[in-house]
Structure formats: C-alpha cells, structure tokens
Amino acid sequence: MAAVRGRPSGLPGSRVPVCDPRTAATLRIAARRGSSITLGALPCSNPRPTPPRNPSPMFSISPGINNETLLAHACESLASASVMTNDFATFLEGSQRNTALAIAQIIMLAELAVNRVLDNLDPQD
C-alpha cells in the first residue's frame, strides 16, 4: 500500500510527517495494536523545508563532455556488461542460466539503441 500525502502507508516502520506529538503517540499505539487508522491531512504549524539535494561529486560526469563521447562510453560499458553476463551464464544451469541470458539480451538491446544514436549523430556514409 503506497503512502498518501498526510496518511500512513500502513507498513510497519513507515515514517509519517507528524507535527503534533499526540498524533505520533496515537499512530504508535495503533501500529502496536495492528489497527488501520486513517487520518486526514495533518496541519503543521512549522513545516520543515526540504533541504537542497547535493549529489556526491565522487562519480559525477563533467558537464563539458559532449553527447557522442558519453554515448561511446555507454556503448563500451554495455558491451563489457554483455560479455560478463554471457560468461557468467556458462556457469549456470536451468532457470538461472535462462535468466542470465535474458539479462544479456536486454543489455544487447540497449547496446543496439546506443549504437543507433551514435550512428545518427555521426553517420559513417
């Protein structure tokens, strides 16, 4: 069951934004009892703003790299993943092997799509 704005998701340990400690206590008691209570939107006198997202620069891509270079690297990465998946599939049997080969096929289809985009960017005619 998905969380709806201002309503508990019904999952154990789900976090609901609560401003009133009495409401939080009611939710905890209801969760212990296994009750399913439904609350309307909870009014907050001091809503907390969402902090800005600061992605880690550890694996960031330089903004100056052109699309063709990015696609070429994506194509090489997909080709490597395809080889690794096919090699791994040789050690498996039955449904696990079929699953690995299906993953390899999905990787191959993505590689074909990236190659088509590369061809559209720089036709080799």
Q: Can you describe what's shown?
A:
By secondary structure, the chain is mainly alpha-helical. Among the domains are: 13-42, no CATH class; 65-121. The chain is built from 3 helices and no strands. The chain has helices spanning 21-33, 67-89, 94-121. α2 packs antiparallel against α3. The radius of gyration is 25 Å and the shape is flat. It starts with 20 loop residues before the first helix and ends with a helix. Residues 1-12 have low confidence and may be disordered.
Core attributes:
mainly alpha, 0% strand, flat
Kindly report the average pLDDT value: 75
What characteristic shape results from the CA principal axes? flat
* Rg result: 25 Å
H-E order: HHH
Q: Which class of secondary structure composition applies to the elements?
A: mainly alpha
- Beta fraction: under 5%
Oligomer: single chain
Largest sheet: none
Q: Can you count the beta strands? A: 0
| Total helical elements | 3
State the end-to-end distance.
54 Å
Q: Percent range for helical residues?
A: 40-55%
Q: Residue ranges: pLDDT <50 for 5 or more in a row?
A: 1-12
Protein name: DUF6124 family protein
